[in-house]
Amino acid sequence: MSANTRRALSLKDKLDILRKYDRFPKMGQRDAAVRLNILQSVLDRILKNREDIECEALQNESQSRKRKRCGKDDTIEHALKEWFVKVRNKDARVQTGLYFRALPEHTYVLQNDKAKGTKFCKERITILYCASMTGEKKKLLVVGKSKQPRCFKGVKALPVDYTANKNAWMTQEIFY
After folding, report:
1. Counting C-beta atoms within 10 Å of the first and last residue's C-beta, which end of the chain has fewer, N or C?
2. Facing residues of 91 across strands?
3. Distances (CA, A) of 19 to 13, 44, 104, 152, 173
4. What share of residues in the chain are helix, strand, coil (percent, to 5)?
C-alpha cells in the first residue's frame, strides 16, 4: 500500500493479515508490514485490536464489512434490529411522489448564454409499491387528482390500481 492511498480493510482482510503475521518467523513489525504490503501503523492497530477482531469473527459478524458503527444505547439498537427483522419478513411498502411534468431543477449553460427561469410544475401522482422479501409483488397503486383523467379515455384495463383525491395523496379512505 503506498503512503498516499488510504483504504479500509474488511474484517476478512484483517483476519488474513493476522494469520499471515503469525506464520512469519520472529521479526519486527516494520519488516512484517513491508512483507504484508501495509503500513506499520495499520499492522500495529490490527495487532492491538486482535482480540476484538477475532471475537467479532467468532460472533458471525459480517466478514465483508469495513467499519462497525454503533449507537449510543445498546437497548435501542437491539430493539431497532428486532423491528427491522420483523418488517423485513413482512410485506415492505414504499410510497413515493412523482412530479411527472417537472423540468430539471438545475441546468448547465455556457458562460455567455443566459438561463431563463421557469416555474416548478406541481402536477403529481403518488405511487405505492408493495413487495415481500420472498419476491411476491402486489399490483401498484397510483393516486392522481382526476377521477377519470382524459388520458384514460378508451382504456379498458390498467396494469395498476388507480384512485383519485384532491391532492394526489395517500389517505385512509383509499384503503377502506
Report:
1. C
2. 132
3. 10, 14, 53, 66, 62
4. 35, 15, 50
Confidence at residue 86, expressed as pLDDT on a 0 to 100 scale: 76
CB 53, CB 15: distance < 8 Å: yes
Tally Cβ neighbours within 10 Å of residue 1.
13
**Could you read off the pLDDT of 84-95 as tens digits, one per residue?**
777 767 666 767
CA distance 54 to 67: 15
Give every CB contact of residue 175 below 8 A, 6+ residues apart in sequence: none
Backbone angles phi, psi at 161, to 5 degrees: -85, 130
* CA–CA separation, 25 and 22 (whole Å): 8
Identify whether the C-beta of residue 90 lies closer than 8 Å to the C-beta of residue 132: yes
Instruction: Look up cell 512469519; give the residue.
Output: 24
Residue 93, beta-bridge partner list = 130
Residue 136 grid cell: 411476491
137 neighbors 130 (Cβ within 8 angstroms): yes
Which three cell numbers mark 129? 409499491
The pTM (predicted TM-score) of the whole model is: 0.42
| Per-residue buried b or exposed e for 41-67, using 16+ beta carbons within 10 Å of the residue's own CB | ebbeebeeeeeebeebeeeeeeeeeee
